[in-house]
Amino acid sequence: MPFKRFVEIGRVALVNYGKDYGRLVVIVDVVDQNRALVDAPDMVRCQMNFKRLSLTDIKIDIKRVPKKSTLIKAMEEADVKGKWENSSWGKKLIVQKRRAALNDFDRFKVMLAKIKRGGAVRQELAKLKKAATA
Amino acid sequence: MAPTSKLSLGIKRASRSHAYHRRGLWAIKAKHGGAFPKAEKPAAAAEPKFYPADDVKPRAPSTRKPKQTKLRHTTSPLRRDLAWRSSSPNWSADLIEIGSSWPLQVDHHARDGADPARGTLHGEESRVSQAAQVRPAPCHRSFFSFYCSGPFKINGVPIRRVNQTYVIATSTKVDISGVDVSKYDDKYFARDKKKKVKKTEGELFDTEKEAAKSLPDFKKDDQKAVDAALIKAIESVPDLKTYLGARFSLRDGDKPHEMVF
User: Fold this and answer.
1) Are A28 and A35 in contact (CB under 8 A)?
2) Is B94 on the interface with A (CB under 8 A)?
3) Contact predicate A58/A80, CB 8 Å
4) Nearest CA-CA distance, residue A112 and chain B, Å
5) Which CDD domains match (chain B) (predicted)?
6) Which of B53-62, B142-151, B229-238 has the lowest mean pLDDT?
7) Between A38 and which of A25, A106, B63, B90 could a Cys-Cys bridge form, CB atoms 3.0 to 4.6 Å apart?
């Protein structure tokens, strides 16, 4: 029941609302009870309400309000991108993006693949059932 | 012209003789030998034999020229290129045709429109390969249409014109460099004028005598020629043939405004 993801300097968060929707940012300072100063390698440092952020499990080791280059170095050392893309949350987002960008032809191919997979599963299941009743 | 006198409406600034001099009527008279040239009165028209019962103004033919429809950028062969070219492009886009507004014609087109046997709510649309783009036809309607072909063997869509409003262009492309599209233009697709055959009373109810419409042979050969090149290009891509043969439809959960075509 205790909280595991805290708002702290170095906490990586996902922006879940607004212009920067979907971006991974690092909390670099806390402005007041509601807002944090937030930074990312490809973004101008800005303040964001905590309500706009979804905290992740990833934390990096930085001092309060580091220089951009220091931040980038720290992110690379902690391999934030790699950790994110390997996490189940990150993987889900990647799949969502891929699905949204599917072409009509791609969607057709996906349908064919699903049918094929379903067929293979059903065949195996039939075999197992037969073996079980035999 | 000289401004009117501020005294009253109709009292001119220049007096009669002053105006005469200013307008140079003396010079015109001199040029024509002392007399002002009179326009000849047109010969009086003969009394018309027939006066229409109602005074109806004759309808003036409309001088409105409809605007040339622009090629929608989503349907252009070069996605970002807004200028269309009349020469056949080297590749074409696959199109999804929305067929529900097509009239049911003889033969091939019965596949479009709502298919009651399948119970679909709206018509299923066929996927079609676009052969070339065409200029706005120089006919009374300047619409922008494409020439496309099923190919016929794959999904039963012949070489035909399709208006771009009935089409969703996809980003799937097929190489059509092997297809010769130069001979297709509006005249190729013009409808045959029906000859009015007067039927005698007995024949009025004789429906058997109505001539059966069939495609002229040269059109069938054209179809084969175009499709040969197209099918070769299509078969080089896995699954593309089945894709073109399948109908497009929306299912539960589909959000067409969010779908990428």
Assistant:
1) no
2) yes
3) yes
4) 9
5) KOW_RPL6 (cd13156)
6) B142-151
7) A25
Interface check for A113 against chain B (CB to CB < 8 A): the answer is: no
Q: Residue A117: helix, strand or coil by DSSP?
A: helix
- CB A104 to CB B248 under 8 A? yes
Place of tokens 């005698």: B200
Nearest-Cα distance to chain B for A50, in Å, is 29
Query: Which residues, in sequence order, are bridge partners of residue B173?
Result: B93
- Tell me the ipTM for this assembly: 0.73
CA atoms of B105 and B147, how far apart (whole Å): 18
**Tens of pLDDT along chain A (134 residues)?**
899 999 999 999 999 999 999 999 999 999 999 999 999 999 999 999 999 999 999 999 999 999 999 999 999 999 999 999 999 999 999 999 999 999 888 888 999 999 999 999 999 999 999 999 87
Using a CB-CB distance cutoff of 8 angstroms, which residues of chain A are in contact with residue B240? 105
What's the gap between Cα A81 and its chain centre?
9
Q: Which of B62, B260, B123 is nearest to A104 (CA)?
A: B260
Q: Does A110 touch chain B (CB under 8 A)?
A: no
Q: How far apart are CA B257 and CA B58, in angstroms?
A: 48
Residue ranges covered by each domain of chain B: 125-190+215-260
Q: Cβ–Cβ of A103/B94 closer than 8 Å?
A: no
Cβ distance A104 to B259 less than 8 Å, yes or no, reads: yes
The answer to whether residue B21 scores a pLDDT higher than 60 is yes
Contact B145, B161 (CB under 8 A): yes
CA distance B5 to A134: 121
Before B151, cis peptide (omega within 30)? yes
Is the distance from CB of B167 to CB of B183 less than 8 angstroms?
no
In the block, residue with structure tokens 């708002």 = A7
